[in-house]
Write a structure and sequence with these properties.
about 425 residues, Rossmann fold, 3 domains, 18 helices, globular
Length: about 425
């Protein structure tokens, strides 16, 4: 297809961040699924730092899940477990990371991503061989993820200020700016600086679409402090109602036995860092186990270097039978995540800082009762969905709420509220409506 044919398309999506990361988070899921749903109606571009230009790509680089069977599959799992065990002390004690030179840390991370991780990015042709995207006045440029580098930020601001395209930002949250105490500098180096640069991009956009009323309030607060308060349109559009796609990816079967035949099966999806507050669930698990409740907790933590020291301390406070009631998984595919939601009797979201709270909606969409922290954007979801709120600092309250929700289940006849787009087509219509 010629550059002219690409430039005839009205929607341009920046996939720079998601194309370079062999993992899926809430934000990356949104970028990937939005891009896939747009199909031939959109141009996908990546920023090329060497030339300072945006290059056209056919699609977002797909994730391939490595098999776990056979000699090589079993060997990879053994080496992966050894890697995580060996590095646990450095992840749990941020001060120890300073003893390892950055090139060594980067090399270790490269080795893990290249050979040990459950998923890997498919190979793409070199970016410099891709055609350069030429902005057209009729086009709408959409940024759904945080910029990657300062050069990327500069290019985005220049694009927004050139008025050649309508520039739209889908804003997920500004937590590193509003809740800086939850982001350890050793585990999140430069995150505050990146979000300050991100704020420059957002303020230059013609339209800022926020994922919640809470996020819009965050942005309004910070934009009021900017020199020359931006004149732009603001709106709120929730992510679409979850629809997990079946992916034939040969992904790990490791979750098949994650939930034993416990009466109360608790699922939590999120990193074990301070922000996600998973320590509260470990403490609640201890309370429930001491009461004699038949309970098991599964945490899907993803791949993260940040581990809450209080979480580690809470683990050490569990005795052996109590520790056996907890399973921590890393990244799982969509297929496996659906299995976990369907197997759980209650979904827990104890996070201290959420711009939206995707696991809340995912849990409800799978017919599971949800207990969420009474903090940030989560009460906003609780006003629309059958969600129980709990004090994020009270382990006994969490224990009581989890048991009650698990036993009561989700009331029958629940339907998707109109506030949530039905699918990605509906989401795009709401986000880009003039």
């Amino acid at each position: 297809m010629s550059v002219g044919e690409y430039n005839a398309r009205g929607l341009v999506i920046d996939v720079t961040a998601v194309s370079g990361q062999p993992m899926i988070t809430g934000v990356q899921r949104i970028v990937r699924e939005f891009s896939e749903a747009a199909g031939d109606a959109a141009v996908l571009v990546r920023f090329h730092p060497k030339t300072g230009t945006f290059r056209i790509v056919r699609r977002v680089a797909r994730l391939r899940y490595r098999a776990t069977t056979g000699f090589l599959g079993r060997l990879r799992l053994r080496l992966k477990n050894f890697y995580w065990s060996f590095s646990s002390g450095f992840r749990e004690q941020g001060s120890r990371r300073s003893y390892i030179p950055a090139p060594v840390r980067n090399a270790a991370r490269w080795f893990y991503d290249t050979f040990l991780a459950d998923s890997q990015l498919e190979r793409e042709s070199p970016l410099h061989r891709r055609p350069e995207w030429e902005p057209q006045p009729h086009q709408t440029f959409a940024l759904l993820d945080i910029p990657v580098t300062p050069k990327h930020v500069e290019a985005l601001v220049d694009l927004a200020e050139s008025n050649d395209v309508r520039f739209v930002v889908y804003l997920h949250d500004l937590m590193p700016l509003s809740h800086r105490h939850l982001f350890n500098r050793q585990f999140h180096p430069g995150v505050r600086a990146r979000h300050l640069r991100y704020l420059d991009v957002i303020s230059a956009a013609n339209l800022v679409v926020c994922n919640s009323q809470y996020t819009q309030a965050q942005y309004t607060q910070f934009s009021a402090l900017l020199e020359g308060k931006p004149s732009q349109e603001l709106r709120v559009v929730y992510p679409p109602w979850p629809a997990f796609a079946q992916r034939h990816d040969g992904s790990s079967d490791a979750v098949s036995g994650a939930f034993p035949a416990a009466e109360t099966r608790i699922l939590a999806v999120g990193a074990v860092d301070v922000r996600k507050n998973m320590v509260m669930l470990v403490r609640a698990l201890k309370v429930l186990a001491e009461r004699g409740d038949d309970v098991h907790l599964v945490i899907v933590s993803g791949i993260t270097a940040a581990v809450d020291p209080e979480f580690t301390a809470a683990l050490l406070d569990l005795n052996e039978p109590q520790r056996a009631r907890l399973t921590i998984l890393q990244s799982v595919s969509d297929n496996r995540l659906v299995e976990l939601y369907d197997r759980a009797t209650v979904v827990a979201v104890p996070s201290l800082a959420e711009g939206f709270g995707l696991p809340v909606v995912e849990g409800v969409s799978r017919g599971r009762p949800v207990v969420a922290a009474d903090a940030t954007a989560l009460p906003e979801l609780a006003a629309l969905l059958p969600v129980t709120l709990a004090d994020p600092a009270d382990a006994v309250a969490w224990a009581d709420a989890l048991i009650a929700a698990s036993r009561s289940g989700l009331s029958e006849g629940f339907v998707r509220p109109d506030a949530f787009p039905e699918d990605w087509t509906d989401f795009r219509a709401r986000m880009l409506a003039l």
